[in-house]
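Lay summary

Proteins are chains of building blocks that fold into shapes. Our project writes down both the chain and a compact code for its shape. Here are two examples, one after the other.
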Amino acid sequence: IQKLQEELDRVRRHRADYRRQRRRQGISTISLVGYTNAGKSTLLNAITQSNVTAEDKLFSTLDPITRRVILPNDTTVLLTDTVGFIQKLPTTLIAAFRATLEEIQAADLILHVIDINHPNVLGQDQAVQEILEDIGLATRPRIVALNKADSLPSHQTTTSKIKSLKLDRDGVPAYLISAKTGWGLQPLLYALQSAVDNQSMDMER
């Protein structure tokens, strides 16, 4: 246990140094968050042409993974894939999640990925929102990606699920996508670009 704790501390220090370096360079950061198996790693691969492990199993991504992304206006940002959330996270796993939570807290923008086709989509969405609130990120700029559109049975079902999520309650923009096929990714990238540009303008004022 002591050796594992020392390793976790080393990882935390390393990532803290990395975050300070990014800040000095003035590069905006975006954190991918979502319930486990929502498709975050698949989306990271699709946007960055990477080959990050994307498996249909619990906690396939344990360590934060960061890749560079070139937005449509040629702005470079950093996109970080984080561990998938679950409801009622066991206290024994909290230490292992600490590096992920710190990455999310340091992000300029949150990209919340939702499996729109999951039968418990409302419960998963609520679990993620509660965790974000618990770590003080309820008001952090956020964009929602409604993933796995390629598996939806009908347009009517899609419309019903989007309305039930009440995504417009906080003015959070939502984009229907398929990370697997690449459908809908271009509008999402433009939305990320607009959000990053708006934040840059706010910082200059």
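And here is the second example, written the same way.
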Amino acid sequence: MGTSAVSSTIDVAIWFSEQARRENDYIQPQKLQRLLYLAQGSFAAMNYGRKLMPATFVADETGPVEPTIYRLFEAGPPKIPLRRMKPEIENFLSVIWRRYAHHTTEYLNQQIHNHPIYSRAIKRGLFEEIEYESIVRFFTGKDRPPIQTEQVKTDDGRTLQKWVPGSVATAKPANRE
């Protein structure tokens, strides 16, 4: 999978904290955890499985938690200066912020509770690790159930299927006897 794009998970957590502060907002610890998890998975999906940060997520009853960050931020953001990251990383984090930060913590918790990788980990027990490979498979769509679509038939009886670039047409004419 290669090295992480950022050397410390703390840097990403502080970036999200500072972003909230710049917008005159406060980021709840649970919401910070959800943003970290979503950022890790989204980055992996967009970058061939590469880690955004060297983080380990475990299953807590509220959702995925990076325990070191949770402990560090449980009394509020630590007094650690924001470290500048590469522009492409800051741009990526801005996208995650715009996509998810306006949602409530409860909404993000509910959405993530539906992720099968979280469900499997919490069934194994509290604080069970959510394996990084599972996160990659889920966020790349390789660990999701297939979307059921209704079959569409043409006037001559052929069944149409969604076209995927690079695939070969499979519709065959109906038997006409």
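What can we say about the second shape? The first strand starts at residue 57 and ends at 60.
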